[in-house]
Amino acid sequence: MVSYSQTVRVVNEPTDSLNVTGSFTPSGTQNVSVTGQPLTVTQVKDPSIDGVYVFSADSITGVAAANNYLSIFNPVGSGKTVIFAGAFISATTAGSTTTTSPMRGYRATLVSGGTLQADSMSAKFITSNPDPVAEIRVGNPAATLDGALFNSPPPLSATQGGTAVHAVPVPGGTGPFILAEGEGIVMRQEIGDVDIRWNLSIVWAEA
User: N- to C-terminal Cα distance for the chain?
Assistant: First the structure.
């Protein structure tokens, strides 16, 4: 007769321990304890996801007036769900800047105009993935803004300066941030400065 119990403990480390305790009774009683077996924890892509993508634009010259710098939009009829995975924002200055207006992220609908980016401008996490259906636009696309999502402060500098990269993730445990058909996200600054140079990246998945 063989009986055993097995306990797997997973923490936020790439390698953890697998603890196994067993009691074996072929003749008499033998107690076996095994500790410290390596357990590798690897994150894998949700099989329902068809592709994961990133678009990155660098050194976008600031505009003094309100401006939509970048948008992602799931067009009506795409047949896909777009899942926002995160954004990365930083900026440098070519001269003195004093504006305190942040780069803000908004949910949006009716996104159009601006400069539509070719699919080839977005990088695929896996090169064999299909081309993305999400539309990426720069150059002040028109949009109907909904709720605000995040704020990233601009650089303040008397001469030349910059900001650290601001990562905007989706909080853990909240579930996916979904963009259904006809929905998008816009990055917008209400009051800008022509001496600011924005670096904007956005990551998303499609299912």
Answer: 48
